Amino acid sequence: MLTCHCYSAPHARQNRNIRHLDMVEWEPISIDALRARIEQGCARMTPAQLRLWEAIRIEPEKWRQHPYGDQGNGFWAVGLIGRTVVWFNDIEDGFNRSRFAEYGTIEQYWCNHDELELSVQYILNALEHGSDLMRLVWEPARVKP
């Protein structure tokens, strides 16, 4: 069992209004603090969320994301389903979902402040209902002439 650690992210709270072109200095979350955040998220999950999480989770590993992840040698990827990676954004202090074409590289930078169980719920909604808000960004609707 993981030990729970308090993780305070003052750098994230101070930088919630990051603009697309602004680059800030930030400290990457430690693996111990990340594991604590995951453990806390799991404790709040519904049984359905937890079943899905157990199917998609991976051992945390650093994935590249240019340019925002460069300073921290990438961001921690924590789950995979299809071509979607669930990852922790140290800058914004929250979990995100992004597409990837190449394993180990996050294509899209998102600045959500979601807890893990919310990111898992978005995936669960997409599986159950066939729609996901991220698809609006990924695949534009085809309009017939």
Q: How many separate domains? A: 1
Query: Could you state the order of secondary-structure elements as H and E?
Result: HHHEEEEHH
Distance between the termini: 58 Å
Beta-strand residue percentage: 15-25%
The total of helices stands at 5
Most strands sheet = 4 strands, antiparallel
State the secondary-structure class.
alpha+beta
Give helix % range: 25-40%
Gross geometry: globular
Radius of gyration: 15 Å
Overall residue-averaged pLDDT value: 81
Low-confidence stretches: 1-21
β-strand number: 4
Widest sheet: strand ordering: 1-2-3-4
Walkthrough of the structure:
With 145 residues, the protein is α+β, with helices and mostly antiparallel strands. The protein has helices spanning 10-14, 31-44, 47-56, 116-129, 135-138, and strands at residues 57-63, 75-81, 84-89, 94-99. The protein has a 4-stranded antiparallel beta sheet with strand order 1-2-3-4. Helix 3 crosses helix 4. The termini are far apart. Residues 1-21 have low confidence and may be disordered.
What's the arrangement of secondary structure elements?
Elements: H1 10-14, H2 31-44, H3 47-56, E1 57-63, E2 75-81, E3 84-89, E4 94-99, H4 116-129, H5 135-138
Antiparallel strand pairs: 1-2, 2-3, 3-4
